């Protein structure tokens, strides 16, 4: 006995067509016409799109930052994810100073185990590089299912690594089938600009974007491109936000460097005018890189369309305005960085990408599901609607509209950076490995069904 989703418009990264999908257990077993067996349960998807479940490859749930922890943990974060049509998240587990990679990873497993409503995997952020850590890397990709690491070129004295560590990690990752994700901002320059503002008494969140201008991001991307070329290691630029960085990635791709890049909904639809509010309220938008001038948005949309940008992820990292962001009321550099968004990635990309004519339906699916699956070792189990793949499916009703806001979102945080923004279309039914987890736009309140995903090592052949 199976489940049949009947009569929807099935969208893949290559095309779209009307058809039925038959699910048995956790797997899609047939796609096409006349797939129904006698005792199957049939759910009509007529008039709706069916997308592969979204993959958000950049979240920070239950992340400790100083004495604080992010407002969303793995339960609230992944619950919000499935409501928005994201059935897999890849979170940044972190090796803090003095820890081994194994300790860092165990900590993240403890945080997530039994709490996740979506499936989940981990990247491993390395903040304390040494030879012993290098010796753990084969274990990471071959036994722990972690096929990507992350390095920060910013956040001086906290997470920032120097060029020597970056170079060595790239060489080691290349040999272990690991993709190196990098936060590209020149942390030393950010630190200098920040100290200058502080000395001048310029401590309002207004100064946050001025302490991290686009050139600071571009310089770091450029340095990473040089190191990627020297080491012949594949690299992934996270949360790319501006034209300058995009052009640097485009030139590197043209030179044959194995570079991939992600942008985020906030950089596509929000801009730096929000910082003109001189009150503390604009601490809501203190994230790194910061929001950019509006003219960058067309370049980013175009980068998605032309393939310079490979994926869209949220960088969901939520802190309440009251009680958490307030830690930086007298000093913008003490405001915990980040913003929520995991629930609205598909909605924003669909509304302001597909409906606005900036992305085709297939490009939308490619950026939000197929490419993340390919780059992060989950394809073809995830990211595609085909026999043999996980039945992670989103039935998307584009006649539904909603207004995004803190009073209605599922994020456990007291504001939305997208407050008042209209979303066209909604995930009305969502399936995770064949099980319905969202019904009529509401979470089916079963126990969390999410499983840890052992990801395959990075392989250029699957690209
Ligand atoms: O501001 C941000 N992006 N916070 C999350 C941590 C990071 O840099 O990805
Ligand atoms: Zn980052
Ligand atoms: Zn991040």
UniProtKB/TrEMBL annotation:
Pfam families recorded: Amidohydro_1 (PF01979)
Modification type N6-carboxylysine: residues: 150
Domain Amidohydrolase-related: 49-437
GO MF, one example: hydrolase activity, acting on carbon-nitrogen (but not peptide) bonds, in cyclic amides
Free-text description of this protein's post-translational modifications in UniProt: Carbamylation allows a single lysine to coordinate two divalent metal cations.
Keyword Transcription on entry: no
Needed co-factor(s): Zn(2+)
Family under the similarity heading: Belongs to the metallo-dependent hydrolases superfamily. Hydantoinase/dihydropyrimidinase family.
The name this protein goes by in its record: Dihydropyrimidinase
